């Protein structure tokens, strides 16, 4: 579903301002969720954790803005490969926020993953695209958002967490979106409705995965690279560089390794 969001942005929304696209993604996401969880959003007003909800909305909104911007300015496979670093940031954050121990395998995973990221970016050997800088900045913001969501999940329903995020981001971006608003065609409206639906469903799935440990919730994200690379090759003639594949392989294999190690430990 997240690969579908990237494809839709590149195919149908390339000529819309990123702020407008991001605002509409969350406004439409909120409208989709209202029939199922509209009342739950009122719980935000009585919540003792309003600051956490607001901080998460700011972080997540900024991350999605940077993500959409990167999709328009860099190869899809490169963008997705850099997003594979998000689970590494989550592992580090989980150790700091929830006391999850940074074992030797986890430390090896972090080091190997960052080595993979350097292969993708190739500092000193390739021009650093502005889109790559944007997605590199988006990673820690996405990870921070997911860690806050994990913390909120201990006290709140998934539906409330998701609809509150959509409503808050839509409210935060309303004025900025109006300032850069461009007229929209039918294909634009179809595109923003599609990314609103896909991203909302994907967000619901991510929240469900937070029922387990954070390392487990992250391990399934890597299949996204296969879809994104296929879309980029078939539709945009984007052939990922060998360094992109090598870096992505390092990140994917290291995270998969730690997932298997932790799963065996959990089972025993």
From TrEMBL:
The keyword DNA-binding does not apply. It holds the Pfam family EamA. The keyword Glycoprotein does not apply. InterPro entries: EamA_dom, EmrE-like. The chain crosses the membrane at residues 23-45, 57-76, 82-101, 108-125, 131-149, 161-181, 187-207, 219-236, 242-261. Residues 2-121 form the EamA domain. It comes from the Bacteria. Keywords: Membrane, Transmembrane, Transmembrane helix. It is a multi-pass membrane protein. Its main location: membrane. It is found in: Membrane. GO terms for cellular component: membrane. Belongs to the drug/metabolite transporter (DMT) superfamily. 10 TMS drug/metabolite exporter (DME) (TC 2.A.7.3) family. PANTHER family: ACYL-MALONYL CONDENSING ENZYME-RELATED (PTHR22911), SOLUTE CARRIER FAMILY 35 MEMBER G1 (PTHR22911:SF6). This is EamA domain-containing protein. It comes from Puniceispirillum marinum (strain IMCC1322).
């Amino acid at each position: 579903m997240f690969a579908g969001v990237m494809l839709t942005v590149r195919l149908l929304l390339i000529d819309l301002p990123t702020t407008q696209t991001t605002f509409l993604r969350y406004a439409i996401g909120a409208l989709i969720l209202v029939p199922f969880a509209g009342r739950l959003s009122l719980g935000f007003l009585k919540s003792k954790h309003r600051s956490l909800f607001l901080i998460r909305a700011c972080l997540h909104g900024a991350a999605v803005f940077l993500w959409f911007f990167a999709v328009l300015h860099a190869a899809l496979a490169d963008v997705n490969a850099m997003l594979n670093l998000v689970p590494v940031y989550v592992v580090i954050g989980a150790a700091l926020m929830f006391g999850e121990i940074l074992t030797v395998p986890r430390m090896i995973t972090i080091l190997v993953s960052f080595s993979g990221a350097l292969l993708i970016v190739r500092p000193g050997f390739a021009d650093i695209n502005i889109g790559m800088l944007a997605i590199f900045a988006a990673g820690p913001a996405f990870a921070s958002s997911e860690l806050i969501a994990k913390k909120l999940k201990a006290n709140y329903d998934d539906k409330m967490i998701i609809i509150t995020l959509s409503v808050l981001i839509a409210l935060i971006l309303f004025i900025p979106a109006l300032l850069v608003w461009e007229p929209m065609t039918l294909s634009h409206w179809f595109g923003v409705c599609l990314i609103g639906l896909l991203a909302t469903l994907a967000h619901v799935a991510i929240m469900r995965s937070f029922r387990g440990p954070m390392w487990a919730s992250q391990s399934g994200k890597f299949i996204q690279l296969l879809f994104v690379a296929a879309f980029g090759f078939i539709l945009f003639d984007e052939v990922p560089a060998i360094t992109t594949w090598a870096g992505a392989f390092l990140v994917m294999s290291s995270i998969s390794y730690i997932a298997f190690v932790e799963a065996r430990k959990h089972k025993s």
